[in-house]
Amino acid sequence: MRYEKGRKDVTRQHIVAVASRRFREDGVEAVGIARLMADAGLTHGGFYSHFGSKEDLVQAAVTDALDRTQENMDRAAQEGGGLEAIVRSYLRASHRDNPGQGCAVACLAAELARHPLATRDAVTERLQRFVGLIAEHLPAADPRVRRDGALAIFGLMVGTLQLARTVSDPVLSDQILASGVTAAAAIAASCRDAA
To answer: How does residue 2 score in pLDDT terms, banded at 50, 70 and 90?
Structure first.
């Protein structure tokens, strides 16, 4: 049976999208290939016509999720809000409440640290882009001060989001998000002082 041109690419992207959401919601180890393919409306046997292994899918799904996070951060920055808009777009309640649509680093950092180098290299490349974007919006003249500040801010953003998702008290969770925004502004101000 012949399919129209491009169908394999569309199907592959569909699998990546489903896996990306499921991995962020449930964790990589908790998601099996058979269940994932069923969620995608496909047979288990079709998986290997698109991916050589589950790890190949993990890498594709995580990089896809991180590319979308980059798009969201870029959009926030371009809409004129600068660093504060980037931080607020990341530390918002809807991001906290919808991990399947959010940043893969905040959802999967502990798991990804145990994955093969190729997957971690792909994550590292995207993380470098996040840090670069944040650094562009810091006031320091010294590029090293901006980079150090951007690393601290991104680490703060990820940790804040993880902590806000962890607690059971919704008021405390909102306070954690707000405190992350305040702390990021303090780090940015310290970069200005270091300039």
So the answer is: low
Q: What DSSP character marks residue 3?
A: -
Would you say residue 23 lies in a domain? Answer: yes
Give the Cα separation of 6 and 165 in Å (integer).
39
Domain that holds residue 55: 7-194
Tell me, yes or no, whether 174 lies in a domain: yes
Mind giving me the DSSP string for 68-81?
HHHHHHHHHIIIII
φ, ψ for residue 53 (rounded to 5)?
A: -165, 170
Tell me, what DSSP letter sits at residue 137?
Answer: T
**165 part of a folded domain:** yes
Of residues 80 and 164, more confidence is placed in 164
Nearest to 183 by CA among 154, 140, 145: 154
Q: What is the DSSP string of 38-59?
A: HHTTS-GGGGGGT-SSHHHHHH
- For residue range 50-98, what is the model confidence (pLDDT) as tens digits? 999 999 999 999 999 999 999 999 999 999 789 999 999 999 999 999 9
**Residue labelled with tokens 């993380």:** 127
Local confidence band at 1 (pLDDT 50, 70, 90 cut-offs): very low
What is the end-to-end Cα distance of the chain in Å, rounded? 65
25, 111 Cβ separation under 8 angstroms: no
Strands in 23-174 per DSSP E: none
- The whole-number pLDDT of residue 140 equals 84
